[in-house]
């Protein structure tokens, strides 16, 4: 499956996907050689991620093909409905899924999200607004939340 590695303000991001869609976007603290050639299947994802980091994009319009259970995919679809610059608690998310007692299962599915930033699991916080678990590290979660709140389009009225 084609993959590429690009530089972001938060480290090197590895993107994997094919004609069926993007299957993973992950971040790494370790050095990875940057891609000189990016396959056609991944080019749109690279372009959209770079625009996001420049503050020029607030949502992603990509064909996605992550691997996961039916429940995980359902959670990931709900994550995509959390607006740019907003946050949602695990409890709120479990209520949206129809089971307010499923907080732990929702948190687990959130943690298994293979599409870093594209499926915005960083927008999920504790019920008290605190930053809780993030596979990319809490420092990255804080950076992403700050980035989005500072780049939210201001309305005139």
Describe this structure in words.
With 157 residues, the chain is α+β, with helices and mostly antiparallel strands. It folds into 2 domains: 3-53, no CATH class; 70-150, Arc Repressor Mutant, subunit A, CATH 1.10.10. The chain is 34% helix and 17% strand. The strands form 2 sheets. The chain has a 3-stranded antiparallel sheet with strand order 1-2-3, covered by helices on one side. A two-stranded parallel ribbon has the order 4-5. A hairpin with a 2-residue loop joins strand 2 and strand 3 (21-28). Helix 3 (90-96) packs across helix 4. The protein is globular and about 45 Å long. It starts with a strand and ends in a 7-residue tail after the last helix.
Task: List the topology elements.
Blueprint: E1 3-8, E2 11-18, E3 21-28, H1 40-53, H2 70-79, E4 88-89, H3 90-96, H4 103-111, E5 124-125, H5 138-150
Parallel strand pairs: 4-5
Antiparallel strand pairs: 1-2, 2-3
Keywords: Cytoplasm, DNA damage, DNA repair, Methyltransferase, Transferase
Enzyme class: transferase
GO cellular component, one term: cytoplasm
